[in-house]
Amino acid sequence: MKETPVALANAVPGWLITLLxxxxxxxxxxxxxxxxxxxxxxxxxxxxxxxxxxxxxxxPVKLIFVVILMSFLQRLVGYVKAGEVRGAxxxxxxxxxxxxxxxxxxxxxxxxxxxxxxDLWLLFVAIIFPCLSxxxxxxxxxxxxxxxxxxxxxxxxxxxxxxxxxxxxxMLETKRDVKYLFYLTLGIVALVVLLGMPxxxxxxxxxxxxxxxxxxxxxxxxxxxxxxxxxxxxxxxLYSAHRRALLLSLIILGCMGISLLTTYSRAGYISFAVxxxxxxxxxxxxxxxxxxxxxxxxVTTVCLVPVVAVPQVWESLESxxxxxxxxRGKRKSYSKFDSANQYSxxxxxxxxxxxxxxxxxxxFGAGFHSFRYMLPSYHYQQWSNYCHNQFLGALAEGGxxxxxxLLTLYWKLWRLLYHNWKVVFRQxxxxxxxxxxxxxxxxxxxxxxxxTNDFMNPGPKSTIFWIVMAGSIRYAMLAREEELPA
Length: 486
Prior knowledge:
2 domains; disordered N terminus
């Protein structure tokens, strides 16, 4: 039966929305530690919120958007070295408020929970198994350094993106809400890319530094770029007749391409290529035209400008893929890599250790998030590091049980995203193709990155990923409801 959407734009009074968003000004006060600055920031925040209230979307979308904005703002503080964030964790407060609003709205709607096809497997992968594994590992394994307080704190960060997914699937009521959520989220990504450009344009050698942006980690930055670039590519290909969209997408894609180039992330390069090819195919199927090749060649040209203008960039790229071993560089993280294989960055040895760990703990694994603590016992150089492979890491930490659950979740997500894209494609919905098609390609790039990195580790990359997954799934569910008889 088709569910009638509830109008939520005015479900909460404007003054309450403003009150909930005041922690932004509070955070600015924590940063500066100055009461006068706090007052000024509060006034500026209120003026900004007056404009924010004018956006015609539901209150939950605004709350989730501010939670995302807060996480990036906290990272920006450290990036520009403006100060240290002190006091209450504002992001936790906002997330708690969002849960409160979900309960309030569910009671008002008369339906607290709306199921999605992924809920059962997400429940097992994100809550049941990690919690049981954490409790068992802390109580019985006695791994050195595996502290209960630290692990619970890390688990809270790890599960947060899944909480965003759940909340958005429960509270997004209209396609307009989903569309605006995507615009706001991608707007944050674009600002993050632009903020990182001064660092990118230094074009240093990869052994000395790699572009990290405000994320503070090159591989995470490359992962975020690769999983969000499909949306900007589809914007370019699907809306090429709109000059403003064409110009905006070209600028952002050029900056993203140059940024990704200077992260020197090989998985990032491959996933970017996957995104480009997949979006080209989707755009061609949607438009039936070859005209998308012109914008594609233009983006490629813009991204290759640094290679031509700054020869050392090309030299760094060549050395990144050379078969020789690492040479000691200025970066601290390379001080141990003298005997590591250049193609894998030491990953092959770490993966061998992961397999050995899985042999010792085949069914339930060594313990959730225990890999970095257990690795020194298995690695010949006694390193402490993450697995750098999502699937081998799941096998080592959670055994065959957790790996099968994770693979099942990803398989169901792949099928759901593919069928979602077919639904909006059948309806001829260009916005739906942009949202659902972009999410499907983002999933493909995530799988590529997960083969050489721990994608699910806490960070903006996984947060943005699960937000766009929730938005695309909810958009397709609404599209299916429109096809049902009234």
